[in-house]
Design brief:
Length: about 220
């Protein structure tokens, strides 16, 4: 395995930004049972050559330690000597970076995104229309309608990763795994966070709207 040297200043900036986002999301209880993962791309990008920092596997994300993150390459392999193990879902991050050229990918497990993904799982997508928060995705037409893809939650992560390119829509920066969670991304951490927050608002709205319609 060949390693690369990532400039110290770039590493420190990425780790500081990811650490701050991790703390915010942990405060919202978006990482139950060590679940979820965050990544931020560093340095230059081509579809077959890029690097990013990602949460290490099995860490309690409600606390901060020097071993919270590690750097990996476009195949999800550590690109520096480390005893840390990348998140089990690193390959999905790799595919999203490869397909979109984005700068950050955030994945969280919440009750609302799980319920909504399960409800619409057989349809393969969650339909949304007319909600104000659609504007968070830079979609500005009146009464806009979008769909968020829902992929099956296979136990083998490579099986999921190979499906990403077939459903990914660059205009809709999110993919759900059925009964699992949401992947949201953006050109940088700020945009990815905005997208994720918008998705989570939309999922809660959909769930509560379904309850009202059935009552």
């Amino acid at each position: 395995m060949s390693f690369v040297t990532i400039p110290l200043e770039q590493k420190q900036a990425v780790l500081q930004e990811l650490g701050g986002i991790k703390e915010q999301f942990a405060a919202r209880h978006w990482f139950p049972g060590t679940s979820g993962n965050l990544s931020l791309r560093v340095g230059d990008y081509t579809p077959d050559n890029f690097h990013f920092a990602i949460t290490a596997s099995g860490k309690d994300k409600s606390v901060s330690t020097p071993s919270d993150f590690l750097f990996v390459d476009q195949e999800g392999h550590p690109c520096e000597a480390t005893g840390l193990k990348p998140s089990a879902e690193t390959l999905i991050h790799c595919e999203i970076y490869r397909e979109t050229g984005c700068g950050a990918v955030f994945h969280v497990h919440t009750v609302f995104n799980n319920l909504v993904s399960e409800y619409f799982g057989e349809k393969g997508a969650v339909p949304i229309q007319g909600l104000e928060l659609i504007k968070a995705f830079n979609i500005w037409e009146e009464n806009a309608a979008i769909t968020i893809p829902v992929l099956p939650n296979y136990a083998e992560i490579p099986r999921i990763a190979e499906l990403v390119s077939g459903v990914l829509n660059p205009a809709i920066p999110g993919i759900l795994l059925r009964g699992h969670g949401i992947y949201a991304w953006g050109k940088n951490a700020f945009e990815a966070k905005r997208h994720l927050e918008a998705f989570e608002f939309i999922f809660e709205y959909i769930y509560r709207d379904l309850l009202l319609r059935k009552s």
